[in-house]
Amino acid sequence: MAESRKLLGDVVIPGIEKVAIHRIMMGLRLYPFDITEQSWFQTALQASYPGRVEDKLVWWRLKQPDGSFTYVNVDPGEYRKAAPEGNVIIMDMPEMPDAQECRDILKDVIHRAEQSLITDRFYLDLTSAGKGLLERPEELARQALSRVEAIIPMMRSAEQEKVAGPLGDLYYHCHSCLEIDQATFAEIVLLLQLQRMTNAWIQERWVDEPGPFLNTFLGQLSSAAETKDRLQSACSQIAFVEYDRARLALKEGLEAGSLASMSRKLADAQLGFWMVNILQLKAANCGLSFKAPRPPVVLEESSACTVTGVGYFANVLTERPESIPLHLRDKASEEGIDEFQAARRWGATVTVPVVNRTFANILGAQAMTLAPEPEQVRAGLNRLLDGRSAGSDDSDAYFVDDDFERGWIDQALLSAYKKLGMEKEAYQMATRIVGRLMVSKLLADTKSTDKTDTKK
To answer: Which helix (H) or strand (E) holds 425?
Structure first.
């Protein structure tokens, strides 16, 4: 990994703020913050290490809180509970250093977002939640849990259609805007659903410790004959509905036209897979079985893969823009495939959902421009130019209509023009990039001045 704690190694790309604030926050809000920092470190280390060493597949052994081990490889991407055998290398994950790099990165992202032209309510609320996480985490947690407490009496007494609005508001703030970590929110949603579906309501305050209360709830209802069948039916319904929703969200995310829209779909998929996995694990711990959409190991793998996709791209955003394409060029050469195939395998599959397929194609074209052969560079340049047009009948063609993707392509084009000695085109592209940045800065300064005048 690059040592820089700045976005894209401090390379400025217009439009990065929306993608960055969401994906960085997604990466930091997977778990409670102390656990997230460990996960961030692990993901960064896995991403920086080669997937193979001397034709041996590299697996990472991760110790779990209960003392057990799980095994992960990120290239091509697989999760196991048993130690892999054969021609492999098993690496033990080291202890995390004291440096809190994820906090530094979040500070940089928030600063850029506040200096940008973002006016969309979602991204403004997301930025506000990010500031709360850094500056007033206890207050942010209380705010999120108060939203949960407010909806409980409504769910107990109101008809389903009357709860839809308040429940959607809860999801918006706690899930979409990430006011609370998603491991905790998954347990909260499970408890809300199970209580409503079984009509067995917890009388104590449980929102501060949803995990332990979920364990107790499942244990008590599964041990009583009059409630066990109802509980099993509820668990099965939740598992099938959430699993199907998660699979659809993941599919739509990979096919999304921009990274911004892909991120929201990936967040939905991650939460759904997590809920099913948590429910299956906690039910098994209390001896409760129910019909599930897939075997336990598949449910765990689905959850692990989406978590990796979320965390991996958060780390990619701290690399320079050419870092991943350089890796893809080497990967394509080693495996005898083209750069587009390498890009999709690297991070645009259901097992490694790091980016959408459109952006994978952009990375593949950029990887071509980093080749030593001029004809290969020119071919990649032409593919990048296709990304600014309406595309073609070619299945690898792509069309972008998002500031971030256009800005990324412009940076790649500038490098390609320089490499080919196309001075006129390089000058024109550099002028366009600088012009966009200057206009953005001017408009952002105007927006800031308007806010100040309004306050006065």
So the answer is: helix 423-455
